[in-house]
Write a structure and sequence with these properties.
This protein is α/β, with parallel strands linked by helices. Helices cover 44% and strands 24% of the residues. The longest helix has 40 residues.
């Protein structure tokens, strides 16, 4: 999968911008605050119909602009098609092959991207919500089924929490209505949990040899999906649903007191272990970075396994955060295999011999220009 070209209008600090990209490595070169990360973000927005930097779409619309438009052309092994995102005060429109998509779930997945930025180191040492978001964003690209069940789960969870809060205020509860919500939430929760458990196991399979290679066979990485209910490869969805229902029943009094649901996928986590020790708690900064890098590189291979296409890789100022060994491993892993976009203020600290035929774009004050091929 490749992004052949990109066009921006009214996006952040770009009044207009156009670029045609290499299938290999594309470098956005320029000083800070000139628009390199905005360019990278626009590719992410084109793929995911949302920014990774802000939840407020209005921030993506340029100053004194009525709307922002991001248009791109994607090429796969089988076909080529245009994608378009338009953001305005009236909302968001997503178009695939010039046809507006009523549901974003029908749009997402037509440009698969993996973003690796300095803040992604928080994947390991950050809060559980960071890792849940990681699962939801990455799995949502690879599986429309997962995305459907996740959206349904979140919708029912919102209804259930609202009812619990309402009951906390008036002291009354309709057990029949609550039972209906419980059944619906547990059914969708079981689907989400089954998909997440499988994804983490498959991610571990790819991440283990990568981590061992980076650590020169000194470390073994294992991943665990830590849930509020017991999960295993042998347990089916019906049993997981029953376990969730038991949790709701067990927690009912506390949930009514607190006005929130205390069990389910929205409370879960992913744990990383190096040589049997929790790297989030006991790992060195180097081990945490190696773990984050291993997981990101594993994700590339897993996405190829699940979708049949390699994703587009976005490296936003991440090379400066990696030492020589990790930088070398990253660049060797992706060269001539994955279309890559990277931002940097200078190529001085980058191992140029590992950048095969890069297409370099200079970015200055919201303008992008191809420097060389």
């Amino acid at each position: 999968m490749f992004l052949k070209e990109l066009s921006l209008r009214g996006y952040r600090n770009y009044e207009t911008a156009e670029a045609k990209f290499s299938k290999k490595i594309n470098v956005f070169l320029g000083e800070n605050a000139q628009g390199k990360t905005n360019m990278m973000e626009s590719i992410y927005v084109l793929a995911m119909a949302r920014s990774h930097r802000t939840a407020n779409d209005k921030e993506l619309i340029g100053w004194d602009q009525d709307f922002a438009k991001v248009t791109g052309k994607v090429e796969t092994d089988k076909t080529t098609y245009p994608l378009e995102i338009v953001l305005s005060n009236k909302g968001k429109k997503a178009r695939l092959n010039h046809l507006e998509q009523k549901k974003l779930s029908a749009y997402i997945g037509h440009l698969n991207v993996i973003l690796f930025a300095p803040e992604d180191l928080a994947l390991v040492k950050g809060s559980p919500s960071v890792r849940r978001k990681f699962l939801d964003m990455e799995m949502g690209q690879m599986s429309t089924i997962y995305l459907y069940h996740l959206v349904e789960y979140q919708k029912i969870l919102k209804q259930r929490n609202a009812y619990l809060k309402q009951n906390r205020r008036n002291g009354k509860i309709d057990q029949t209505y609550l039972s209906i919500l419980n059944e619906q939430l547990a059914a969708e929760g079981a689907e989400v949990l089954a998909e997440r458990f499988s994804f983490v196991k498959r991610l571990e399979k790819w991440a283990q040899p990568i981590h061992a290679d980076i650590s020169q066979e000194k470390e073994e990485l294992t991943l665990e999906y830590a849930s509020t209910v017991s999960l295993s490869s042998e347990k089916d969805k019906d049993q997981v649903m029953k376990d969730l229902l038991e949790q709701y029943k067990k927690n009912e009094r506390r949930e009514m007191d607190q006005g929130t649901t205390l069990a389910g996928p929205h409370r879960d986590d992913v744990r990383f272990y190096v040589n049997g020790k929790n790297v989030q708690t006991y790992g060195s900064q180097g081990q945490q970075r190696t773990t984050a890098l291993s997981v990101k590189l594993a994700e590339i291979e897993l996405m190829k396994e699940m979708t049949g296409e390699y994703p587009v890789l976005l490296l936003d100022d991440v090379l400066s955060e990696l030492d020589d060994d990790r930088q070398t491993h990253l660049l060797k892993s992706i060269q001539d295999k994955v279309q890559t976009f990277l931002t940097t203020t200078s190529l001085d600290g980058v191992k140029k011999e590992l950048l095969h035929d890069p297409r370099i774009f200079t970015v200055h004050n919201g303008q992008i220009e191809m420097e060389s091929e």
